[in-house]
Structures
1.
Amino acid sequence: MEGGWSWGWGKRTRRLSRLRQVAMVVGLVGHLGESYDEWVHQPIVSNEGPRFFESDFWEFLTLTVWWAIPTIWLPVVCWCISMSIRMGHTLSEIGLLFSNVWLYQCIVFILLKKKKKYNLYRGNTIHYLIHGFHHKHPMDGLRLVFPPAATAILCFPFWNLVRIFATPSTTPAIFGGSLFGYVMYDITHYYLHHGKPSNDVSKHLKRYHLNHHFCIQDKGFGVTSSMWDKVFGTLPPQKTTQDCK
Ligand SMILES: [Zn+2]
Ligand SMILES: [Zn+2]
Protein backbone atom coordinates (compact mmCIF):
# COMPACT_ATOMS: atom_id res chain seq x y z
CA MET A 1 0.00 0.00 0.00
CA GLU A 2 2.82 2.34 1.02
CA GLY A 3 4.73 1.34 -2.09
CA GLY A 4 1.67 2.22 -4.20
CA TRP A 5 1.37 5.59 -2.55
CA SER A 6 5.03 6.51 -3.05
CA TRP A 7 4.86 5.27 -6.66
CA GLY A 8 1.84 7.54 -7.23
CA TRP A 9 3.61 10.45 -5.57
CA GLY A 10 6.73 9.91 -7.67
CA LYS A 11 4.62 9.81 -10.82
CA ARG A 12 2.90 13.08 -9.89
CA THR A 13 6.21 14.78 -9.10
CA ARG A 14 7.64 13.63 -12.44
CA ARG A 15 4.55 14.94 -14.24
CA LEU A 16 4.79 18.29 -12.46
CA SER A 17 8.48 18.63 -13.23
CA ARG A 18 7.76 17.79 -16.89
CA LEU A 19 5.08 20.49 -16.99
CA ARG A 20 7.50 22.94 -15.42
CA GLN A 21 10.10 22.07 -18.07
CA VAL A 22 7.55 22.65 -20.84
CA ALA A 23 6.63 26.05 -19.49
CA MET A 24 10.11 27.12 -18.40
CA VAL A 25 11.79 28.47 -21.55
CA VAL A 26 8.80 30.29 -23.06
CA GLY A 27 7.80 31.42 -19.58
CA LEU A 28 11.02 33.42 -19.16
CA VAL A 29 9.79 36.21 -21.43
CA GLY A 30 6.90 36.81 -19.05
CA HIS A 31 9.36 37.97 -16.39
CA LEU A 32 10.61 40.82 -18.57
CA GLY A 33 7.65 42.90 -17.42
CA GLU A 34 7.53 46.40 -18.88
CA SER A 35 10.88 46.02 -20.64
CA TYR A 36 9.43 43.21 -22.81
CA ASP A 37 8.14 45.63 -25.46
CA GLU A 38 11.55 47.20 -26.04
CA TRP A 39 13.34 43.83 -25.91
CA VAL A 40 11.05 42.04 -28.36
CA HIS A 41 11.36 44.81 -30.95
CA GLN A 42 15.14 44.54 -31.15
CA PRO A 43 15.47 41.84 -33.84
CA ILE A 44 18.18 39.20 -34.01
CA VAL A 45 18.73 38.54 -37.71
CA SER A 46 19.70 34.89 -37.86
CA ASN A 47 18.22 31.87 -39.64
CA GLU A 48 18.04 30.06 -36.32
CA GLY A 49 16.05 30.88 -33.22
CA PRO A 50 16.21 29.67 -29.63
CA ARG A 51 14.59 26.51 -28.38
CA PHE A 52 11.06 27.15 -27.15
CA PHE A 53 10.51 24.12 -24.98
CA GLU A 54 12.74 21.61 -23.24
CA SER A 55 10.26 18.91 -24.09
CA ASP A 56 11.09 17.44 -27.54
CA PHE A 57 7.40 16.83 -28.24
CA TRP A 58 6.31 20.45 -27.67
CA GLU A 59 9.41 21.74 -29.40
CA PHE A 60 8.62 19.62 -32.48
CA LEU A 61 5.12 21.13 -32.66
CA THR A 62 6.58 24.64 -32.90
CA LEU A 63 8.76 23.88 -35.95
CA THR A 64 7.13 23.98 -39.39
CA VAL A 65 8.58 23.93 -42.90
CA TRP A 66 6.71 26.42 -45.13
CA TRP A 67 5.51 23.81 -47.66
CA ALA A 68 3.64 21.92 -44.95
CA ILE A 69 1.03 24.71 -44.99
CA PRO A 70 -0.27 24.23 -48.58
CA THR A 71 0.33 20.46 -48.41
CA ILE A 72 -1.87 20.04 -45.34
CA TRP A 73 -4.50 22.73 -45.83
CA LEU A 74 -5.17 22.93 -49.58
CA PRO A 75 -6.73 19.43 -49.61
CA VAL A 76 -8.99 20.58 -46.76
CA VAL A 77 -9.95 23.66 -48.83
CA CYS A 78 -10.81 21.37 -51.80
CA TRP A 79 -12.83 19.11 -49.52
CA CYS A 80 -14.81 22.14 -48.27
CA ILE A 81 -15.58 23.24 -51.84
CA SER A 82 -16.64 19.74 -52.87
CA MET A 83 -18.90 19.50 -49.82
CA SER A 84 -20.79 22.68 -50.75
CA ILE A 85 -21.04 21.50 -54.39
CA ARG A 86 -22.46 18.15 -53.28
CA MET A 87 -25.06 20.06 -51.28
CA GLY A 88 -26.26 21.76 -54.45
CA HIS A 89 -24.21 24.93 -54.96
CA THR A 90 -22.95 25.94 -58.40
CA LEU A 91 -19.34 26.95 -59.05
CA SER A 92 -20.27 30.63 -59.40
CA GLU A 93 -22.04 30.54 -56.03
CA ILE A 94 -18.97 28.89 -54.52
CA GLY A 95 -16.83 31.68 -56.02
CA LEU A 96 -19.02 34.25 -54.30
CA LEU A 97 -18.91 32.47 -50.95
CA PHE A 98 -15.19 31.91 -51.38
CA SER A 99 -14.58 35.62 -51.80
CA ASN A 100 -14.13 35.99 -48.05
CA VAL A 101 -10.44 35.09 -48.47
CA TRP A 102 -9.72 38.53 -47.04
CA LEU A 103 -11.48 37.61 -43.76
CA TYR A 104 -8.44 35.84 -42.30
CA GLN A 105 -6.21 38.85 -42.96
CA CYS A 106 -8.77 41.11 -41.32
CA ILE A 107 -8.88 38.96 -38.16
CA VAL A 108 -5.08 38.76 -37.96
CA PHE A 109 -4.85 42.47 -38.57
CA ILE A 110 -7.16 43.32 -35.69
CA LEU A 111 -5.26 40.94 -33.38
CA LEU A 112 -1.84 42.35 -34.30
CA LYS A 113 -2.89 45.96 -34.24
CA LYS A 114 -4.45 45.63 -30.80
CA LYS A 115 -1.32 46.60 -28.98
CA LYS A 116 -1.53 45.65 -25.35
CA LYS A 117 0.44 46.90 -22.41
CA TYR A 118 3.01 44.11 -22.20
CA ASN A 119 3.63 44.40 -18.51
CA LEU A 120 1.81 41.30 -17.42
CA TYR A 121 3.42 37.89 -17.28
CA ARG A 122 0.63 36.27 -19.26
CA GLY A 123 0.34 39.15 -21.74
CA ASN A 124 4.06 38.99 -22.55
CA THR A 125 4.00 35.21 -22.95
CA ILE A 126 0.94 35.16 -25.23
CA HIS A 127 2.28 38.01 -27.36
CA TYR A 128 5.69 36.31 -27.63
CA LEU A 129 4.16 33.03 -28.81
CA ILE A 130 1.76 34.59 -31.31
CA HIS A 131 3.77 37.46 -32.75
CA GLY A 132 6.66 38.63 -30.57
CA PHE A 133 8.93 35.69 -31.39
CA HIS A 134 8.73 36.53 -35.07
CA HIS A 135 9.77 40.13 -34.33
CA LYS A 136 12.67 38.96 -32.18
CA HIS A 137 13.82 36.34 -34.73
CA PRO A 138 12.34 37.50 -38.07
CA MET A 139 14.45 35.15 -40.21
CA ASP A 140 13.86 31.90 -38.30
CA GLY A 141 12.41 29.95 -41.25
CA LEU A 142 11.02 27.09 -39.17
CA ARG A 143 8.91 29.38 -37.01
CA LEU A 144 7.56 31.71 -39.65
CA VAL A 145 4.36 29.93 -40.62
CA PHE A 146 1.64 28.97 -38.15
CA PRO A 147 2.07 25.43 -36.72
CA PRO A 148 -0.56 23.08 -38.26
CA ALA A 149 -1.40 21.57 -34.86
CA ALA A 150 -2.43 25.02 -33.59
CA THR A 151 -4.38 25.76 -36.80
CA ALA A 152 -6.22 22.44 -36.49
CA ILE A 153 -7.30 23.34 -32.94
CA LEU A 154 -8.47 26.81 -34.05
CA CYS A 155 -10.43 25.32 -36.96
CA PHE A 156 -13.07 23.88 -34.62
CA PRO A 157 -14.28 27.12 -32.99
CA PHE A 158 -14.01 28.95 -36.33
CA TRP A 159 -16.13 26.31 -38.12
CA ASN A 160 -18.74 26.59 -35.37
CA LEU A 161 -18.68 30.38 -35.59
CA VAL A 162 -19.30 30.28 -39.36
CA ARG A 163 -22.08 27.74 -38.79
CA ILE A 164 -23.96 30.24 -36.60
CA PHE A 165 -24.17 32.79 -39.43
CA ALA A 166 -24.33 30.51 -42.48
CA THR A 167 -26.57 27.71 -43.74
CA PRO A 168 -25.35 24.08 -43.59
CA SER A 169 -24.56 24.08 -47.33
CA THR A 170 -22.71 27.43 -47.38
CA THR A 171 -20.69 26.83 -44.20
CA PRO A 172 -18.01 24.63 -45.88
CA ALA A 173 -17.42 27.12 -48.74
CA ILE A 174 -17.18 30.13 -46.42
CA PHE A 175 -14.88 28.23 -44.05
CA GLY A 176 -12.79 27.00 -47.02
CA GLY A 177 -12.46 30.57 -48.32
CA SER A 178 -11.05 31.80 -45.02
CA LEU A 179 -8.75 28.80 -44.78
CA PHE A 180 -7.49 29.51 -48.29
CA GLY A 181 -6.93 33.15 -47.26
CA TYR A 182 -4.85 31.90 -44.34
CA VAL A 183 -2.73 29.65 -46.60
CA MET A 184 -2.06 32.54 -49.00
CA TYR A 185 -1.20 34.82 -46.08
CA ASP A 186 1.24 32.38 -44.50
CA ILE A 187 3.14 31.41 -47.66
CA THR A 188 3.28 35.03 -48.86
CA HIS A 189 4.71 36.02 -45.48
CA TYR A 190 7.36 33.30 -45.76
CA TYR A 191 8.20 34.40 -49.30
CA LEU A 192 8.60 38.03 -48.23
CA HIS A 193 11.27 36.95 -45.73
CA HIS A 194 13.11 34.24 -47.65
CA GLY A 195 12.12 34.62 -51.32
CA LYS A 196 13.83 36.73 -53.96
CA PRO A 197 11.15 39.00 -55.47
CA SER A 198 11.51 39.48 -59.21
CA ASN A 199 8.68 41.87 -60.08
CA ASP A 200 7.67 45.31 -58.80
CA VAL A 201 4.64 44.11 -56.82
CA SER A 202 6.54 41.50 -54.81
CA LYS A 203 9.52 43.86 -54.36
CA HIS A 204 7.18 46.50 -52.97
CA LEU A 205 5.48 43.99 -50.63
CA LYS A 206 8.84 42.77 -49.36
CA ARG A 207 10.04 46.31 -48.65
CA TYR A 208 6.69 47.11 -47.02
CA HIS A 209 6.90 44.12 -44.68
CA LEU A 210 10.58 44.50 -43.82
CA ASN A 211 9.85 48.11 -42.89
CA HIS A 212 7.31 46.76 -40.41
CA HIS A 213 10.09 44.64 -38.87
CA PHE A 214 13.03 46.99 -38.98
CA CYS A 215 11.63 50.49 -39.23
CA ILE A 216 8.18 51.28 -37.83
CA GLN A 217 6.86 48.25 -35.98
CA ASP A 218 3.51 49.74 -35.01
CA LYS A 219 2.60 50.54 -38.62
CA GLY A 220 2.34 48.55 -41.85
CA PHE A 221 0.82 45.31 -40.51
CA GLY A 222 -0.45 44.23 -43.93
CA VAL A 223 1.34 41.27 -45.52
CA THR A 224 -0.37 40.44 -48.81
CA SER A 225 -1.49 44.06 -49.34
CA SER A 226 -1.69 47.41 -47.57
CA MET A 227 -5.51 47.41 -47.80
CA TRP A 228 -6.21 46.89 -44.09
CA ASP A 229 -3.57 49.45 -43.12
CA LYS A 230 -5.55 51.98 -45.12
CA VAL A 231 -8.82 50.88 -43.46
CA PHE A 232 -7.43 50.94 -39.90
CA GLY A 233 -5.22 54.01 -40.31
CA THR A 234 -1.85 52.29 -39.81
CA LEU A 235 -0.34 53.08 -43.19
CA PRO A 236 3.34 53.99 -42.68
CA PRO A 237 4.49 57.38 -44.02
CA GLN A 238 5.39 57.24 -47.71
CA LYS A 239 8.94 58.46 -46.99
CA THR A 240 9.54 55.55 -44.63
CA THR A 241 8.46 52.89 -47.08
CA GLN A 242 10.98 54.23 -49.60
CA ASP A 243 13.94 55.10 -47.42
CA CYS A 244 14.04 52.56 -44.64
CA LYS A 245 16.29 49.60 -45.30
ZN1 LIG B 1 7.39 38.98 -40.95
ZN1 LIG C 1 4.40 42.66 -36.45
2.
Amino acid sequence: MKVTMLMAQTLDGRIAKSSNHFPDWTEKADKKFFKSRTKESGVMIFGRTTFDTLPGVLPGRFSIVISRSAGAWDERAENLIFTSLAPAEILKKLKSLGFSNPILCGGTTINTLFARENLIDEIIVTVSPKIFGDGLGLFSPEISLDLALEKFEKLGENSLALFYTVKK
Ligand SMILES: NC(=O)c1ccc[n+]([C@@H]2O[C@H](COP(=O)([O-])OP(=O)(O)OC[C@H]3O[C@@H](n4cnc5c(N)ncnc54)[C@H](OP(=O)(O)O)[C@@H]3O)[C@@H](O)[C@H]2O)c1
Protein backbone atom coordinates (compact mmCIF):
# COMPACT_ATOMS: atom_id res chain seq x y z
CA MET A 1 0.00 0.00 0.00
CA LYS A 2 1.37 3.37 -1.05
CA VAL A 3 -0.38 6.55 0.11
CA THR A 4 0.16 9.60 -2.11
CA MET A 5 -0.76 13.02 -0.80
CA LEU A 6 -1.67 15.25 -3.74
CA MET A 7 -2.14 18.96 -3.10
CA ALA A 8 -2.09 22.24 -4.98
CA GLN A 9 -0.41 25.23 -3.40
CA THR A 10 0.44 28.82 -4.25
CA LEU A 11 4.04 29.95 -4.60
CA ASP A 12 3.81 31.22 -1.00
CA GLY A 13 2.75 27.79 0.24
CA ARG A 14 -1.00 28.29 0.78
CA ILE A 15 -3.57 25.65 -0.10
CA ALA A 16 -6.57 27.94 0.52
CA LYS A 17 -7.36 31.40 1.87
CA SER A 18 -9.73 29.88 4.47
CA SER A 19 -11.43 26.59 5.35
CA ASN A 20 -14.37 27.14 3.00
CA HIS A 21 -12.27 28.33 0.05
CA PHE A 22 -12.93 26.07 -2.96
CA PRO A 23 -9.66 25.23 -4.83
CA ASP A 24 -10.79 26.63 -8.21
CA TRP A 25 -7.68 28.79 -8.62
CA THR A 26 -5.42 26.17 -10.21
CA GLU A 27 -4.61 26.17 -13.93
CA LYS A 28 -6.32 23.87 -16.43
CA ALA A 29 -3.24 21.63 -16.72
CA ASP A 30 -3.20 21.24 -12.91
CA LYS A 31 -6.87 20.21 -12.85
CA LYS A 32 -6.16 17.71 -15.65
CA PHE A 33 -3.20 16.30 -13.67
CA PHE A 34 -5.40 15.91 -10.53
CA LYS A 35 -8.10 14.15 -12.53
CA SER A 36 -5.69 11.78 -14.21
CA ARG A 37 -3.80 10.83 -11.00
CA THR A 38 -6.97 10.29 -8.98
CA LYS A 39 -8.68 8.29 -11.73
CA GLU A 40 -5.58 6.10 -12.03
CA SER A 41 -5.71 5.45 -8.27
CA GLY A 42 -9.48 4.98 -8.11
CA VAL A 43 -9.84 6.37 -4.58
CA MET A 44 -9.51 9.77 -2.90
CA ILE A 45 -9.50 10.52 0.83
CA PHE A 46 -10.86 13.90 1.97
CA GLY A 47 -11.56 15.65 5.25
CA ARG A 48 -15.22 16.56 5.66
CA THR A 49 -14.48 20.30 5.39
CA THR A 50 -12.73 19.85 2.05
CA PHE A 51 -15.50 17.62 0.74
CA ASP A 52 -18.03 20.35 1.66
CA THR A 53 -16.22 22.82 -0.63
CA LEU A 54 -16.68 20.51 -3.65
CA PRO A 55 -19.68 20.88 -5.95
CA GLY A 56 -20.46 17.16 -5.49
CA VAL A 57 -18.96 13.69 -5.79
CA LEU A 58 -16.18 13.64 -8.39
CA PRO A 59 -17.19 11.00 -10.95
CA GLY A 60 -15.31 7.82 -11.81
CA ARG A 61 -13.50 7.46 -8.46
CA PHE A 62 -14.34 6.50 -4.87
CA SER A 63 -14.47 9.35 -2.34
CA ILE A 64 -13.72 8.54 1.29
CA VAL A 65 -14.76 11.40 3.59
CA ILE A 66 -13.43 11.49 7.16
CA SER A 67 -15.85 12.91 9.73
CA ARG A 68 -16.19 12.35 13.46
CA SER A 69 -19.95 12.28 13.09
CA ALA A 70 -19.94 9.39 10.58
CA GLY A 71 -20.28 5.70 11.40
CA ALA A 72 -17.46 3.24 10.75
CA TRP A 73 -18.18 2.92 7.03
CA ASP A 74 -21.33 4.72 5.82
CA GLU A 75 -22.12 4.30 2.14
CA ARG A 76 -23.94 7.58 1.51
CA ALA A 77 -24.19 7.26 -2.29
CA GLU A 78 -22.57 5.39 -5.15
CA ASN A 79 -18.77 5.83 -4.79
CA LEU A 80 -19.17 7.91 -1.59
CA ILE A 81 -18.18 6.63 1.87
CA PHE A 82 -18.24 8.67 5.08
CA THR A 83 -16.10 7.22 7.88
CA SER A 84 -14.94 7.97 11.40
CA LEU A 85 -12.32 5.18 11.31
CA ALA A 86 -8.71 6.06 12.17
CA PRO A 87 -6.37 6.52 9.17
CA ALA A 88 -4.67 3.09 9.56
CA GLU A 89 -8.07 1.37 9.70
CA ILE A 90 -9.21 3.22 6.57
CA LEU A 91 -6.11 2.03 4.71
CA LYS A 92 -6.70 -1.56 5.87
CA LYS A 93 -10.26 -1.36 4.57
CA LEU A 94 -9.11 0.10 1.22
CA LYS A 95 -6.50 -2.65 0.87
CA SER A 96 -9.18 -5.28 1.42
CA LEU A 97 -11.22 -3.61 -1.34
CA GLY A 98 -8.26 -3.96 -3.72
CA PHE A 99 -6.88 -0.40 -3.74
CA SER A 100 -3.08 -0.10 -3.63
CA ASN A 101 -2.41 3.63 -4.07
CA PRO A 102 -5.04 5.83 -2.39
CA ILE A 103 -4.71 9.58 -2.91
CA LEU A 104 -4.89 11.76 0.18
CA CYS A 105 -6.55 14.98 -0.97
CA GLY A 106 -6.48 17.22 2.11
CA GLY A 107 -7.17 19.46 3.76
CA THR A 108 -4.66 20.59 6.33
CA THR A 109 -6.25 18.75 9.26
CA ILE A 110 -6.57 15.37 7.56
CA ASN A 111 -3.10 15.58 5.99
CA THR A 112 -1.73 16.12 9.50
CA LEU A 113 -3.73 13.20 10.92
CA PHE A 114 -2.09 10.85 8.37
CA ALA A 115 1.38 12.43 8.72
CA ARG A 116 1.37 12.04 12.50
CA GLU A 117 0.82 8.30 12.06
CA ASN A 118 3.61 8.17 9.46
CA LEU A 119 1.17 6.90 6.82
CA ILE A 120 2.14 9.14 3.88
CA ASP A 121 4.58 7.54 1.42
CA GLU A 122 4.67 10.09 -1.38
CA ILE A 123 3.86 13.80 -1.59
CA ILE A 124 3.03 15.45 -4.89
CA VAL A 125 2.64 19.20 -4.65
CA THR A 126 1.64 21.30 -7.62
CA VAL A 127 2.74 24.93 -7.44
CA SER A 128 0.34 27.47 -8.97
CA PRO A 129 1.32 30.93 -10.18
CA LYS A 130 -0.51 32.61 -7.29
CA ILE A 131 0.27 34.38 -4.02
CA PHE A 132 -2.36 34.51 -1.23
CA GLY A 133 -0.26 36.15 1.49
CA ASP A 134 -2.28 34.38 4.18
CA GLY A 135 -4.30 31.18 4.60
CA LEU A 136 -3.90 27.46 5.21
CA GLY A 137 -0.74 25.41 4.68
CA LEU A 138 -0.29 21.75 3.76
CA PHE A 139 -0.04 20.70 7.44
CA SER A 140 -0.89 22.13 10.86
CA PRO A 141 -0.23 21.92 13.77
CA GLU A 142 3.47 21.15 13.86
CA ILE A 143 4.86 17.93 12.38
CA SER A 144 8.24 16.89 11.06
CA LEU A 145 8.81 14.90 7.86
CA ASP A 146 12.00 14.32 5.88
CA LEU A 147 11.62 14.14 2.12
CA ALA A 148 13.58 13.16 -0.97
CA LEU A 149 12.87 15.00 -4.22
CA GLU A 150 12.29 12.37 -6.93
CA LYS A 151 11.41 14.55 -9.94
CA PHE A 152 9.56 17.61 -11.14
CA GLU A 153 7.44 18.35 -14.18
CA LYS A 154 6.14 21.53 -15.75
CA LEU A 155 2.34 21.54 -15.99
CA GLY A 156 0.95 23.80 -18.70
CA GLU A 157 2.40 27.31 -18.96
CA ASN A 158 2.91 28.36 -15.35
CA SER A 159 2.56 25.45 -12.93
CA LEU A 160 4.94 22.84 -11.60
CA ALA A 161 4.47 19.36 -10.10
CA LEU A 162 7.03 18.33 -7.46
CA PHE A 163 7.29 14.64 -6.55
CA TYR A 164 8.73 13.70 -3.14
CA THR A 165 9.19 10.41 -1.30
CA VAL A 166 8.72 10.54 2.47
CA LYS A 167 11.82 9.13 4.18
CA LYS A 168 10.82 6.62 6.88
N1 LIG B 1 -5.17 23.30 -2.54
C1 LIG B 1 -5.52 22.04 -2.42
O1 LIG B 1 -5.03 21.15 -3.12
C2 LIG B 1 -6.52 21.66 -1.37
C3 LIG B 1 -6.86 20.32 -1.21
C4 LIG B 1 -7.75 19.98 -0.20
C5 LIG B 1 -8.29 20.95 0.61
N2 LIG B 1 -7.96 22.24 0.42
C6 LIG B 1 -8.54 23.27 1.28
O2 LIG B 1 -8.33 22.94 2.64
C7 LIG B 1 -9.40 23.52 3.40
C8 LIG B 1 -9.96 22.51 4.39
O3 LIG B 1 -8.95 22.06 5.27
P1 LIG B 1 -9.29 21.88 6.83
O4 LIG B 1 -8.03 21.54 7.54
O5 LIG B 1 -10.07 23.06 7.27
O6 LIG B 1 -10.29 20.65 6.86
P2 LIG B 1 -10.20 19.11 6.38
O7 LIG B 1 -8.88 18.53 6.71
O8 LIG B 1 -10.67 19.03 4.96
O9 LIG B 1 -11.36 18.44 7.24
C9 LIG B 1 -11.42 18.60 8.63
C10 LIG B 1 -12.57 17.76 9.15
O10 LIG B 1 -12.19 16.41 9.25
C11 LIG B 1 -12.87 15.81 10.34
N3 LIG B 1 -11.87 15.34 11.31
C12 LIG B 1 -10.86 16.02 11.84
N4 LIG B 1 -10.16 15.24 12.70
C13 LIG B 1 -10.76 14.04 12.70
C14 LIG B 1 -10.52 12.84 13.37
N5 LIG B 1 -9.51 12.70 14.23
N6 LIG B 1 -11.33 11.80 13.11
C15 LIG B 1 -12.35 11.93 12.27
N7 LIG B 1 -12.65 13.08 11.59
C16 LIG B 1 -11.84 14.12 11.81
C17 LIG B 1 -13.74 16.87 10.98
O11 LIG B 1 -15.01 16.78 10.33
P3 LIG B 1 -16.38 16.70 11.23
O12 LIG B 1 -16.55 18.09 11.74
O13 LIG B 1 -17.41 16.27 10.26
O14 LIG B 1 -16.10 15.71 12.31
C18 LIG B 1 -13.03 18.14 10.55
O15 LIG B 1 -13.91 19.24 10.56
C19 LIG B 1 -10.44 23.99 2.37
O16 LIG B 1 -10.31 25.38 2.18
C20 LIG B 1 -10.05 23.30 1.10
O17 LIG B 1 -10.39 24.01 -0.06
C21 LIG B 1 -7.08 22.62 -0.55
